[in-house]
Amino acid sequence: AVDIFGEDAEGNAVVVELKRRRFGPDAVGQLNRYVEALRRDLHADATVRGILVAPSVTDRAGRLLERRDLEFVSLSPIPET
Predict the structure, then answer these.
(1) N or C: which end of the chain has fewer CB within 10 A?
(2) What pTM, to 2 d.p., does this model score?
């Protein structure tokens, strides 16, 4: 399931997938499926941003993100005290 779905300042649909740990190609594929499904539901030329949020990304997953025009945001969980 999509973790966060919303709209950016320009009115584009945004799908955000959150991962607790470093992610690989499987997570990119998952996000890409969400983005493509949303494009089908809206309309083919809709702008849909896909963003993966995690502490880090593997090199291979980073290349896949670029090829699929998806975004990565680095965010580490706050350590529990």
Answers:
(1) C
(2) 0.88
| DSSP letter (8 states) at residue 23 | B
Contact 27, 61 (CB under 8 A): yes
- Distance in angstroms (rounded) separating the CA atoms of residues 78 and 81: 9
Q: Are 75 and 55 in contact (CB under 8 A)?
A: yes
The tally of domains found in the chain comes to 1
Backbone angles phi, psi at 11, to 5 degrees: 85, 10
- CA-closest candidate to residue 68, choices 44, 50, 47: 50
Computed from CA positions of residues 19, 23, 26, 28, in that sequence, does the dihedral angle turn out positive or negative? Answer: positive
Which pLDDT belongs to residue 2?
A: 73
Question: Whole domain around residue 18: which residue ranges?
Answer: 4-74
